[in-house]
Each structure stands twice: as C-alpha cells, then as structure tokens.
Design goal:
CATH topology: Trna Endonuclease, Chain: A, domain 1
Distance between the termini: 27 Å
CATH class: Alpha Beta
Number of strands: 5
Strand order of the largest sheet: 1-2-3-4-5
Radius of gyration: 13 Å
Strand content: 25-35%
Structural class: alpha+beta
Order of helices and strands: HEEEHHEE
CATH architecture: 3-Layer(aba) Sandwich
Helix content: 25-40%
Number of helices: 3
Number of domains: 1
Length: 109
Amino acid sequence: MSRAKGNQAEDLACGFLDENGFSIVERNFYSRFGEIDIIAFKEDVLHFVEVKSGLDYESAIQNITPSKLSKFIKTTHVYLKKNALEVDFMIDAIVVTPEKIWHVENITL
C-alpha cells in the first residue's frame, strides 16, 4: 500500500475514534522496533492502534502477523517507558474498507 493510502486510512481511523469518544494523543510514533499508527485515550485507558486497510476485512486483518504484533508490543513498551507512563492500556486494530470501519480491541488476547 502506498503511504498516501496509508495516511488516508489513518485519517479515517482518527475520525472514527474521535466520533466514538477517543482523544488522539499521538500519531506515527516510531521506535527502532516499528511504528504505532495512532495512540488514543478513552475512559482512563490508553489505546495503541494499528490501522490496516483493504478491499475487505479478512485481507486487511491478515496483515497483522505474529511478527508485526511482536514488534508493535515492543514499540508500545518503548512509548510507555519513554513517557514514564504507568497506565492501563490496550492494543487495538482498526480495519478500514471501502464499506466500513471496524474497531477490534485487545488484539493480543
């Protein structure tokens, strides 16, 4: 996927989160392990969000591989340590398709 399409999906995901009561804290946080697309806060929980887009849900969600998830978790811990945060947090995915946006919470369970 091109960076422009990725940015468009992230913009749609941010709008979706905003409409659903989340406050966007940061976008595109990088560490040596990888990137977190969106960091958002809602009801005392920090949500680390991976955004995937595709023509359908299945093809998009399958791009979150075990290796990608492992790097994402490491990057999450870097962010928490760098910002000296001890908060409840969740790792989520947002899947953007032409028809719908899905928010999948706690993808590590």
